[in-house]
């Protein structure tokens, strides 16, 4: 069956001859010049610009992104010589833990800004060469591709009748990647040992926690520019296997859904692909988070789908929970900030959120979240007004009638209930929040 199958420092502009004309081929003779291409002036300028734009915190040496250009002005010739001679040695990464929205922590490894610069320069050259060889079903960390395209592809599969989903979750993917297996795949593409050597060194650099450096035997630490490309190299073998079987799938990094026509087909695919991941890739499937189910019972990159004949994108339940948690965090009364400051921070978050989740095709959900957000703000402002006399004066100042203002200010009801009252709706209308620069989730006015 089918389913079974910025300006660069002056030093960056010196001593780097262009190798234009040497690209666009994978022959060993050309690949031997790969490190020269990495050290080219334009490639390094682009890498520096990207590292500066990404900002981020300092690594184990304490050097900030702002200090990097001056450091390169003084030391780039020596660093370049180390790269060309194959003697460059990265420093250990700094371990930080980021709380996950659904509990637990995500461990990130923060390289030094110099190592981030070198990784970025390496990544740019390798990505230019390799991106065109990756699967059309791979959407993560690739130029011109996005999470929205992956979701749209999944939506198309469902519309075509593939209404069962094999939702695969790799267990601690970035922590479990085999260095030897990854380097073996890189070796088939890169004959220049001067490039392979720093890549392995980045993988083996170790992790500093509490002043002590621990060795690393597996995994690609999240936090460096090179890690996303390395993850695509590892999972390219996975993509090819799914394609060989004629399966319909969409993958974004380690988030992958396969779409089939029946539960039985889905269970076969789950079993056989799990074996492939375990035996061939030497990775592990998280059985608790993986499942064969209807697409509208699962999520993909923060979205889910309706069960209608023409499926629509909708917000996954966890995306709604995260949204409300973040809005509550930004509008806590105990933060002790003025409404204008609160509105500025909230507006920044909402604009970013709309940029991603605004493509939801269930406007009633967005409308509901918009109304909930305004109610939350009215509730917070009501709390800030505190005493009854202040509340009465504020309502009157905003045009609320004397009797209604007195009745509302003296009410025993809590802030959340009163946030829906006629008095607060009149005193703090939608236009008021518009004037504070808080965008509407539905885009209307």
What's this entry about, in short?
By secondary structure, the protein is an alpha+beta fold. The protein has helices at residues 28-31, 34-38, 41-54, 68-85, 113-130, 147-159, 173-176, 179-187, 193-204, 227-244, 263-279, 317-330, 339-357, 363-385, 388-397, 402-409, 415-418, 422-427, 430-435; strands at 93-99, 105-110, 164-169, 207-209, 212-214, 248-252, 255-260, 291-293, 303-305, 313-315.
Would you give an account of this structure?
There is one protein chain. The chain has 445 residues and is of the alpha+beta class. Helices cover 50% and strands 10% of the residues. It is built from 19 helices and 10 strands. The protein has helices spanning 28-31, 34-38, 41-54, 68-85, 113-130, 147-159, 173-176, 179-187, 193-204, 227-244, 263-279, 317-330, 339-357, 363-385, 388-397, 402-409, 415-418, 422-427, 430-435, and strands at 93-99, 105-110, 164-169, 207-209, 212-214, 248-252, 255-260, 291-293, 303-305, 313-315. The strands form 3 sheets. It has a 4-stranded mixed sheet with strand order 2-1-4-5, with no helix packed on it. β1 (93-99) and β2 (105-110) form a beta hairpin. α3 (41-54) crosses α5 (113-130) and α15 (388-397) packs antiparallel against α16. The longest helix is centred in the C-terminal third of the chain and has 23 residues, at 363-385. It starts with 27 loop residues before the first helix and ends in a 10-residue tail after the last helix. The model is unreliable at 1-8 and 13-31 (pLDDT under 50).
Distinctive features:
single chain; 445 residues; four-stranded mixed beta sheet; four-stranded antiparallel beta sheet; 50% helix; 10% strand; globular
């Amino acid at each position: 069956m089918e389913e079974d199958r910025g300006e660069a420092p002056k030093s960056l502009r010196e001593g780097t001859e262009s190798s234009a004309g040497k690209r666009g081929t994978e022959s060993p003779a050309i690949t031997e010049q790969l490190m020269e291409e990495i050290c080219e002036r334009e490639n390094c300028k682009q890498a520096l610009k990207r590292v500066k734009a990404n900002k981020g915190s300092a690594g184990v040496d304490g050097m900030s992104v702002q200090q990097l250009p001056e450091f390169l002005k003084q030391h780039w010739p020596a660093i370049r010589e180390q790269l060309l001679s194959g003697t460059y040695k990265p420093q250990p990464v700094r371990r930080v833990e980021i709380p996950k929205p659904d509990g637990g922590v995500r461990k990130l490894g923060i390289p030094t800004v110099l190592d981030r610069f070198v990784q970025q320069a390496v990544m740019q050259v390798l990505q230019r060469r390799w991106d065109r060889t990756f699967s059309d079903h791979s959407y993560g960390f690739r130029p011109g591709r996005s999470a929205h395209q992956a979701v749209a592809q999944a939506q198309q599969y469902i519309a075509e009748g593939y209404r069962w989903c094999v939702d695969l979750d790799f267990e601690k993917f970035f922590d479990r990647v085999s260095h030897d297996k990854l380097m073996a795949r890189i070796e088939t593409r890169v004959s220049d040992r001067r490039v392979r050597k720093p890549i392995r060194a980045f993988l083996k650099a170790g992790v500093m926690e509490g002043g002590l450096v621990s060795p690393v035997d597996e995994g690609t630490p999240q936090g460096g520019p090179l890690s996303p490309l390395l993850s695509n190299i590892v999972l390219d073998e996975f993509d090819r296997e799914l394609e060989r079987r004629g399966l319909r799938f969409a993958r974004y990094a380690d988030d992958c859904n396969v779409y089939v026509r029946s539960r039985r087909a889905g269970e076969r695919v789950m079993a056989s692909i799990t074996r492939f991941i375990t035996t061939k890739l030497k990775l592990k499937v998280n059985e608790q988070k993986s499942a064969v189910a209807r697409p509208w019972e699962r999520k993909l990159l923060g979205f889910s789908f309706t069960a209608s004949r023409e499926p629509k994108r909708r917000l996954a339940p966890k995306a709604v929970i995260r949204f409300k948690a973040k809005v509550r965090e930004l509008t806590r009364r105990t933060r002790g900030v003025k409404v204008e400051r609160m509105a500025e921070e909230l507006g920044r978050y909402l604009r970013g959120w709309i940029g991603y989740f605004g493509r939801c095709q269930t406007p009633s959900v967005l409308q509901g979240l918009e109304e909930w957000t305004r109610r939350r703000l009215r509730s917070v402002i009501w709390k800030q007004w505190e005493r009854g006399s202040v509340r009465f004066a504020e309502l009157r100042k905003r045009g609320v009638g004397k009797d209604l203002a007195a009745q509302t200010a003296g009410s025993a009801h809590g802030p959340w209930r009163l946030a829906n009252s006629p008095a607060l709706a009149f005193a703090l209308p939608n236009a008021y929040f518009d004037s504070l620069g808080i965008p509407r989730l539905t885009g209307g006015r």
